[in-house]
Design brief:
Radius of gyration: 22 Å
Number of helices: 20
Strand content: 15-25%
Strand order of the largest sheet: 3-1-4-5-6-7-8
Structural class: alpha/beta
Oligomer: single chain
Distance between the termini: 43 Å
CATH architecture of the largest domain: Alpha-Beta Horseshoe
Helix content: 40-55%
Mean pLDDT: 91
CATH superfamily of the largest domain: tm_1862 like domain
């Protein structure tokens, strides 16, 4: 049975990833690897790289002639996924279409209200998709398949959830050889580069974040992680590896073992991590540096201690200052992430965050406007308290776009004021000689020239990310 996985062209959507470059779709690559190991005939179209128009994409699907097409979608790209499923059905109504990802996990029934989807996979998909495809191949119903939602007789059936995968080492490495891996690029990353995750889920409970769709926190073993790194470097010539964990180094022992194994195997490459302020200390930073880690991303979020407490971030301002200076003392690049207009914020607290970002020794900063995302505590609380007139994401999932989005606009301000403040944050942070020079120096100009067509296409997204919510 032929299985086709597609990542749609999401270059017009605003996010950190697609305004700095295009990265491999890890989630779909994991699914592709599992399917290939189960002896399915697997193909992959990454249309974010290819940029095919509708007619060309239809022609590619016809050439492959798949029995099943699998898609994945984050919340911002959900309506694109719906449009893509309809395009697939236009090619042939006989093609079975499946979708997964965090958005469907929160709203499974609403997601399958679109008739162009035949089934969906909630949460982790590796085990569920194998059972689903076996049922489809045997022409059997999907009733009783844990973690699956499907259409039947014009209605939608949501099965019981599936248990999370306890041993992440049991999952085969992503099938990067099916991806156009030589064509992925980013502004400040050396090519060729690859991405990986060392864990799933997150043990923390920040109210603005939703990691529940992946289950509880679980980590791969250091040996399994470094083996994948070694393959990237020795077999594919990787110069840099980007770790996309929500929180690296939850356990100090694991972080140190990863660094020790990199030394033992004698593999040389640049890499980076995303983590929390409270998980970083001198011992960890020193070990990361010696193992080739060159960049640390910190979720700082706010310059107001009161706001940090409201977020349940379990961080303090003094610790942020101390750890940021410690990271820079070891010569690593430091990137910080900040949020404006969190519930309960004021104009004064948001301006304090901007000034705090400028006071830190950051090389790069991202400013976003807080939004109640599906499944997050702040969204649930706002619905419960009647702050939103309707469940925005439930309606959005069904294809209904409401005029008012789930932002938390401070009293006395208008939505447009938040756009202005966000633009002010970016201009004040980046239009400083040291930051501007560092940004120019870090650009991979050869990659910009080589991929000029795609970068040019990404410019509207970059502008939107800075000037709008």
């Amino acid at each position: 049975m032929k299985i086709l996985l597609i990542r749609d062209d999401e270059s017009s959507l605003s996010s950190e990833t697609n305004i700095t470059g295009i990265y491999p779709p890890l989630g779909l690559a994991y699914i592709a690897s599992v399917l290939r190991n189960a002896n399915y005939d697997v193909s992959f179209i990454d249309n974010q790289i290819l940029g095919l128009n509708s007619d060309c994409l239809k022609n590619e699907i016809r050439k492959i002639n798949p029995a099943v097409v699998l898609l994945s979608s984050m919340t911002p790209s959900w309506l694109r996924a719906v449009r893509l499923s309809k395009l697939i059905k236009d090619v042939s109504p006989q093609i079975v279409t499946g979708v997964g990802g965090p958005h469907l996990t929160v709203y499974p029934a609403e997601s399958l209200s679109h008739e162009s989807f035949d089934f969906g996979v909630c949460g982790e998909g590796e085990n569920t998709i194998l059972e689903v495809l076996k049922r489809i191949q045997d022409k059997r119903t999907l009733e009783g398949v844990a973690g699956c939602v499907f259409r039947k007789d014009g209605g939608v059936i949501v099965n019981a959830p599936r248990e999370e995968i306890s041993n992440l080492d049991s999952i085969p490495f992503p099938a990067i050889e099916l991806l156009p891996y030589k064509r992925y690029f980013a502004l400040s990353v050396e090519n060729p580069f690859f991405t990986l995750v060392t864990s799933r889920g997150c043990p923390y409970n920040c109210k603005f974040c939703f990691q529940g769709y992946l289950g509880g926190y679980r980590a791969r073993s250091p040996g399994n992680i470094v083996k994948e790194m070694e393959i990237f470097v020795k077999e594919y010539g990787a110069k840099e590896i980007i770790t996309f964990d929500e929180t690296f180094a939850v356990e100090e022992k694991t972080a140190l073992e990863i660094c020790e194994l990199i030394h033992e195997k004698g593999i040389r490459f640049k890499w980076d991590i995303r983590t929390r302020v409270d998980l970083i200390n001198e011992k960890v930073i020193k070990s990361l540096k010696s193992a080739g880690c060159s960049r640390i991303h910190l979720g700082i979020e706010s310059g107001s201690q009161e706001v940090l407490c409201n977020m349940d971030k379990k961080a303090n301002i003094r610790d942020v200052i101390e750890k940021a200076n410690l990271i820079k003392r070891f010569g690593l690049e430091l990137r910080g992430y900040f949020m404006l207009a969190y519930p309960g914020e004021t104009d004064e607290s948001m301006r304090r965050t901007i000034e705090f970002a400028k006071s830190l020794p950051l090389d790069w900063a991202s400013f976003t406007i807080a939004i109640g995302l599906p499944g997050t505590e702040i969204y649930k609380e706002a619905l419960k308290n009647g702050e939103f007139s309707a469940d925005y994401w439930r309606e959005y999932t069904k294809g209904n776009i409401l005029k008012t989005k789930p932002y938390f606009i401070p009293r006395g301000m208008e939505e447009e004021d938040l756009f202005i403040l966000k633009k002010k944050a970016y201009s004040e942070f980046y239009l400083r000689p040291r930051i501007a020079w560092n940004m120019l120096r870090s650009l991979r100009l050869a990659e910009v020239v080589k991929n000029f067509r795609i970068f040019f296409k990404l410019l509207p997204s970059a502008y939107h990310s800075i000037t709008r919510i």
